[in-house]
Write a structure and sequence with these properties.
The complex is a heterodimer of chains A (543) and B (85). Helices cover 45% and strands 15% of the residues of chain A. Chain A has 19 helices and 16 strands. Chain A has helices at residues 36-80, 83-96, 100-116, 121-124, 126-141, 164-169, 188-195, 232-253, 280-285, 309-322, 359-364, 366-379, 395-415, 431-435, 437-443, 451-459, 477-492, 510-516, 528-537, and strands at residues 2-5, 7-10, 13-21, 155-159, 175-180, 200-202, 216-220, 225-228, 269-274, 290-295, 327-331, 384-389, 423-428, 446-449, 496-499, 520-523. In chain A, helix 1 packs antiparallel against helix 2, helix 10 (309-322) packs parallel to helix 12 and helix 15 packs parallel to helix 17. With 85 residues, chain B is α+β, with helices and mostly antiparallel strands. Chain B has a single domain (2-84), classed as HPr-like (Histidine-containing Protein, Chain: A, 2-Layer Sandwich). Helix content of chain B is 39%, strand content 27%. Classes of the chains: A alpha/beta (543), B alpha+beta (85). Chains A and B meet through helix 1, helix 2, helix 3 and helix 5 of A and helix 1 and helix 2 of B.
């Protein structure tokens, strides 16, 4: 029995056989060659093949983990074309008359060393990228296929470190978990693992030479530990925990296809929150009845210029089509505060949460807003899209928004571009909006209460500040009374009201919300079935 | 020959992705484009060299452009730095 602690990347537990993935970079032999130009031609061909492979990985990663997780493979393609890197390989072949793979390995060492020697952690980590692309070239040159994981039994992957390309290539169905000696919680690998929901542990100080494929291992993401060759008792404990998890899952599976309705007949819509197009798969998998909050920021973040109307239109259209007629509520740009994109040139603010953000940017810079509205309106032709505006504090803001929407509609009419009139609603996430919710309700089609910001503004507590944890009570009466008030305002004007903040997924409050008459709860995809079960188990009239 | 100085505003500095974009931009021009950080230089068309400069937020680089299309390249790169870095 060998037990090690590490940093948990994903909370989950698993017991299963180990599959050891070793680096291959030690296997390159130095050989004398006679025709340097022929060898260089081999490098060129291998480079083309490597870039093709990376292009495929990029496409796979885009679908599974989104644009920001995939960007690394684009950089890898460019690194393979780097002049200095190629010159170094070519020179070595010509002057030392050595085989291509050896020249690549030697060049890799030099460049990796350069990055490792830099005083910046981010740049140090780039050494791994140089090794990743070089190993790819070497594998192609040596005719070694990548470690074939397709015939692997479902296993716990154990490695010194995993490159992003190794992680994304793995068949998710066959990975029970993974454990590495190196890697940081911010490495690409950790980020990918989290997105793919693989129980994972990094920075566990074991010696990989002592671990062999086929050994049993327990990966406990709750405790942050891995046990190789666990004893009987540990196996039994792990199995019990896994069964507990499985049992919960089975119970929830039974909730699929069921209506979200209480025992006494009140129905509630349970929708899901998503952050990018790739998340739609999780929405459908968890049988959400719609998308209650589609954060459009992903289109704006992690890039260097504004997304075009066409790019936005394609993304909205795709989601609308994938949801096939189910409601998709898209929230307009909510950038600022903790979500920054440099090209907006927002500047530093002393108090960004209360600063220039979200709808305030849209109203001050209507060009940005109009591009998004045009894309949204055009996408209404392809499904059931609603538009939601964030950070509203006053009736005048909503009136101004509607004027801008009308202008955009007129432009579309003039250009003969078709669109449908979408449902339009607002986020209620400022105390001001709560207090004037009866007036706001006249104007809009629906409310969605954003409890994260509402709580922070109401309790005057910055959630990033750990010192305030003792004062932070998410169930504070003030918040619950506000929610009730908003629900009453909406219903007085025959409008519907939902909750899309974290509180919406709080199982301790589900019954209270349903009793208040909340019509919709929008939660993380993984919470949909749990909330549905809670709704189906309750009887709010007590009869 | 044309020259300009630029102080990097991007929080993480000239990291992998922006360096990639910079290389793409620089390759559009015939001119030789050299980035100088405290005496360490790199050609803007070479990704690893640019990344190797390790330019961080708040540091100033000097960009020198020499060649027949230096005027166009100067304007384009200045704009690129301002918008992306």
């Amino acid at each position: 029995m060998m037990q090690y602690s590490g940093k948990s990347v994903y909370r989950g537990i698993v017991l299963g056989p180990v599959f050891v993935l070793k680096n291959h970079d030690t296997q390159v032999r130095r050989r004398k060659i006679s025709d340097a130009e022929a060898e260089i031609e081999e490098v060129r061909k291998a480079g083309i093949k490597a870039r093709e492979q990376l292009k495929k990985l990029y496409d796979k990663a885009i679908k599974e983990v989104g644009e920001s997780g995939a960007a690394i493979f684009e950089v890898h393609q460019m690194m393979l074309e780097d002049e200095d890197y190629l010159d170094s390989i070519h020179n070595m072949i010509r002057t030392q008359m050595v085989n291509a793979a050896y020249a690549v390995a030697a060049t890799c060492d030099n460049f990796a060393e350069m990055f490792s020697g830099m005083d910046d952690d981010y740049m140090k980590a780039r050494a791994a990228d140089v090794k990743d692309i070089s190993n790819r070239l070497i594998r192609i040159l040596e005719g070694n296929e990548e470690t074939d994981l397709s015939s692997m039994e479902p296993s716990v992957i154990v490695a010194d470190d995993l490159s992003p390309s190794e992680t994304v290539q793995m068949d998710k169905e066959k990975i029970l978990g993974f454990v590495t000696v190196h890697g940081s919680t911010n490495s690409h690998t950790a980020i990918l693992a989290r997105t793919m929901n693989i129980p994972a542990l990094i920075g566990a100080p074991f010696n990989i030479e002592e671990i062999h494929t086929g050994m049993m291992a327990v990966v406990d993401g709750y405790k942050g530990e891995v046990i190789f060759e666990p004893d009987e008792e540990q196996c039994a404990q792990a199995k019990a925990k896994m069964e507990e998890e499985q049992e919960k899952l089975r119970l929830l599976e039974g909730m699929k296809g069921q209506k979200s309705i209480t025992k006494d007949g009140r129905s509630v819509h349970i929708y899901a929150n998503i952050g990018n197009v790739g998340d739609v798969g999780y929405v459908l998998e968890n049988d959400a009845e719609g998308i209650g909050l589609f954060r459009s920021e992903f289109l704006y973040l992690g890039r260097d210029s504004f997304p075009t109307e066409e790019e936005q239109f394609q993304a909205y259209k795709q989601v609308a089509q994938m949801m096939a007629g189910k409601k998709v509520i898209i929230r307009t740009l909510d950038i600022g505060a903790d979500k920054q994109a440099d090209y907006f040139n927002l500047g530093k603010e002393d108090n960004p949460a209360m600063g220039y953000r979200a709808i305030r940017i849209c109203l001050k810079q209507p060009d940005i807003f109009k591009t998004q509205l045009r894309a949204l309106l055009r996408a209404t032709m392809f499904g059931n899209i609603s538009i939601m505006y964030p950070m509203i504090t006053a009736v005048e803001e909503v009136q101004r928004i509607f004027e801008i929407v009308k202008e955009v509609q007129k432009e579309l009419d003039d250009a003969g571009i078709p669109y449908k009139y979408p449902e339009q609603g607002i986020m209620i996430e400022t105390p001001a909006a709560v207090m004037v919710s009866d007036e706001l309700a006249r104007l809009v089609d629906f409310f969605s209460i954003g409890t994260n910001d509402l709580t922070q503004y109401t309790l005057a507590i910055d959630r990033q500040n750990e010192k305030l944890d003792d004062f932070y009570n998410p169930h504070h009466k003030a918040i619950l009374r506000m929610i009730k008030m908003v629900a009453e305002s909406a219903h007085r004007h025959q409008k519907w009201v939902g909750i899309c903040g974290e509180l919406g997924a709080d199982l301790d409050l589900t019954e209270e919300f349903v009793t208040m008459g909340i019509d919709e709860l929008s939660v993380a995809p993984s919470m949909v079935l749990k909330i549905r079960k809670a709704v189906r188990d309750m009887n709010i009239s007590g009869e | 020959m044309k020259k300009f100085s630029y102080t990097v505003k991007d929080e993480v500095g000239i990291h992998a992705r922006p360096a990639g974009l910079l290389v793409k931009e620089a390759k559009k021009y015939a001119s030789k484009i050299v980035i100088d950080k405290d005496g360490k230089t790199a050609e803007a068309g070479k990704l690893m060299a640019v990344m190797g400069l390790g330019v961080k937020c708040g540091q100033t680089v000097e960009v020198t452009i020499t060649g027949e299309d230096e005027d166009v390249a100067y304007e384009a790169l200045k704009e690129f730095f301002e918008n992306n870095l």
